[in-house]
Amino acid sequence: MTFEEALVAPGRKVLVSGTQVKEGKRALVIFSLSSDGAKEIAARRVPEGDHDALKADLTARGLALGETDSSCDFVWATTADGIDVYDSKRKVFEAAGDRATLVDGTVVPRADFARVMTYVSEDYIHRGVKAALRSGKEVELVPEISLSAMGDPAYTRNELLWETGWTSTIGIAIATWAGTGFDNGIL
């Protein structure tokens, strides 16, 4: 699908701008976001000199900005009153207004958030973003299971740090929405 076709395609869409410049070009990708997850619907590598102008044109024509990280399956977008996180199969997390909705449908009021943090299990397989609630309970907000950590006996902390940069970005956005502090439990 071309960018022009993606712009008129139905549904919510976000534009993700690549950060790496390769051979003088940088990627721009349009994702469709729905209850069925984030799906790439258009992509183009554009000359670095044209990147900012095309990005500005596409956002002026109605595309919201989103983010992703090449080391994970998540696409996220901040909204006027929160943040939405998708993987390739579903919406994983939504913070909007005065409540957050988790992947299992659990609703957590914003006032219940005491702290937002990143976490990782001792074996590096389970990682993500969780919240400590005022009740003392902890809830996973954006969890991930790493197949690379699971399948590689030589998996090290270096790989962990490379693969979990997204946790801080999403965690800080959720903490900002919740009006709480943020702790990086992975570093």
Q: Any chance you could write out the topology, listing elements then pairs?
A:
Elements: H1 3-8, E1 12-17, E2 25-34, E3 37-47, H2 48-60, E4 64-65, E5 67-68, E6 75-79, E7 82-86, E8 91-96, E9 99-102, E10 107-109, E11 113-120, E12 126-133, E13 138-145, H3 147-151, H4 157-163, H5 165-178, E14 181-184
Parallel strand pairs: 1-4, 11-14
Antiparallel strand pairs: 1-2, 2-3, 5-6, 6-7, 7-8, 8-9, 9-10, 11-12, 12-13
Explain this structure to me?
It is globular and about 50 Å long. By secondary structure, the protein is α+β, with helices and mostly antiparallel strands. The chain contains five helices and 14 strands. Strands 5-6-7-8-9-10 form a six-stranded antiparallel β-sheet, covered by helices on one side. It has a four-stranded mixed β-sheet with strand order 3-2-1-4. Strands 13-12-11-14 form a four-stranded mixed β-sheet, covered by helices on one side. β9 and β10 (107-109) form a beta hairpin. It has helices spanning 3-8, 48-60, 147-151, 157-163, 165-178; strands spanning 12-17, 25-34, 37-47, 64-65, 67-68, 75-79, 82-86, 91-96, 99-102, 107-109, 113-120, 126-133, 138-145, 181-184. The mean pLDDT is 94.
Give a quick set of tags describing it.
5 helices, 24% helix, single chain, four-stranded mixed sheet, globular, 187 residues, 14 strands, six-stranded antiparallel sheet, alpha+beta
Brief account:
Helix content is 24%, strand content 44%.
Shape: globular
Order of helices and strands: HEEEHEEEEEEEEEEHHHE
Main sheet: strands, sense, barrel: 6 strands, antiparallel
Poorly predicted spans = none
